Amino acid sequence: MKIICIGRNYAKHIEELQNEKPENPVVFLKPDSAILAKNQPFFIPPFSNNVHFEVEVLVKINKVGKYIQEKFAHKYYDEIGLGIDFTARDIQDASREKGLPWEKAKAFDGSAAMSEFFPKENFGDLNNLEFKLFKNNELVQDGNTNAMLWKIDELIAYVSQYFTLKKGDVIFTGTPAGVGKVHENDVLTGTIQNKEMFSVKIK
């Protein structure tokens, strides 16, 4: 499986990091070694002093597809989840300044926390999906997929131009505003429509 991540898909998050609004979705990958094992804590890596949480709605691909038309994209997934794209912001900023890739900042071991996946029918309109992240019971990110610059079906159609999508692949669809630094002993809890999807302790 592969983890396909979308950057800069929420305007307010673009503003908070003072990035430019892209003309097309920003796409990067995480290896399967980035998956945080179920019920395991996230360990702050020794190479970063500024790891950020970024909560994101996840889509699990259910069959092989290439050059998928947007009108057919809904047939390529039937499950939704929630996750965290942990980001070593200090390394990302340094890489950006030098025009270098982001992988060390985004694709390190344990950097992809993922909830269980549930049938998309459970959530109603996926283009109006409310999701939240709480840090130590305090709301830090409050998102809705209606604010996406590119909706889920658009992302699938776009990504499939470049990568063959395979069963089990996961798409991280971008994070809303409110990202911030994690600290030892923090507890991060994510919800979709007030349903708890995951809880991760920081070590």
Give an overview of the whole structure.
- Helix content is 13%, strand content 33%.
- With 203 residues, the protein is α+β, with helices and mostly antiparallel strands.
- It has one domain: Alpha-Beta Complex (Fumarylacetoacetate hydrolase, domain 2).
- The strands form three sheets. Strands 1, 2, 4, 5, 7, 8 and 11 form a seven-stranded mixed beta sheet that branches. Strands 10-9-13-14 form a four-stranded antiparallel beta sheet, with no helix packed on it.
- The relative contact order is 0.28.
- The mean pLDDT is 95.
Topology:
Elements (H helix, E strand, L loop, with lengths): L2 E5 L3 H6 L9 E5 L20 E3 L1 E7 L15 E9 L1 E2 H9 L5 H4 L5 E3 L3 E2 L10 E6 L2 E7 L7 H8 L10 E3 L7 E2 L5 E6 L2 E7 L2
Parallel strand pairs: 1-11
Antiparallel strand pairs: 1-2, 3-6, 3-12, 4-5, 4-11, 5-7, 5-8, 9-10, 9-13, 13-14
Question: Characteristics of this structure?
Answer:
203 residues, seven-stranded mixed beta sheet, 4 helices, 14 strands, 13% helix
TL;DR of this structure?
The chain has 203 residues and is an alpha+beta fold.
Order of helices and strands: EHEEEEEHHEEEEHEEEE
Name the CATH superfamily classification. Answer: Fumarylacetoacetase-like, C-terminal domain
Distance between the termini: 27 Å
- Strand content of the residues, in percent? 25-35%
Q: Please report the first level of CATH classification, the CATH class.
A: Alpha Beta
What structural class do you assign from the helix and strand content?
alpha+beta
